[in-house]
TrEMBL record:
Residues 1-19 form the signal peptide. This is MORN repeat variant. It comes from Algibacter pectinivorans. Keywords: Signal.
Length: 105
């Protein structure tokens, strides 16, 4: 399990680093959340999700590889990891549950 978490961390950091060049940020006035869409250099979506006005991750975040294949579906509440995160690693689905930023192993 630690291997998968390490791989996920590397993937998310890599995706975040490359996705910073092209992004779209839109304020949803009804929810008061900022919708974010980040793109890979090839134009494929890298990540989608929401921020609070204070800049904290909120709700469902989804990460994709450069071919558009879903890698991770994650959940945040005011910047804290919560709920079931789904990781797709080599075509296999792995589920990790979080409570207050701590993974239940």
């Amino acid at each position: 399990m630690k291997k998968y978490i390490t791989i996920l961390a590397v993937v998310l950091i890599s995706v975040s680093s490359f996705a910073q060049k092209d992004k779209s940020l839109t304020l949803n006035k009804e929810t008061n959340l900022i919708e974010a869409v980040y793109y890979h250099d090839n134009g494929e979506i890298s990540q989608t999700g929401f921020f609070t006005p204070e800049g904290k991750l909120e709700g469902n975040w989804v990460s994709y590889d450069v071919k558009g294949t879903k890698l991770v579906s994650a959940y945040y509440k005011e910047g804290i990891k919560v709920g079931k995160w789904i990781h797709w690693i080599d075509g296999n689905k792995k589920v990790v549950s979080y409570t207050n930023n701590v993974a239940a192993l």
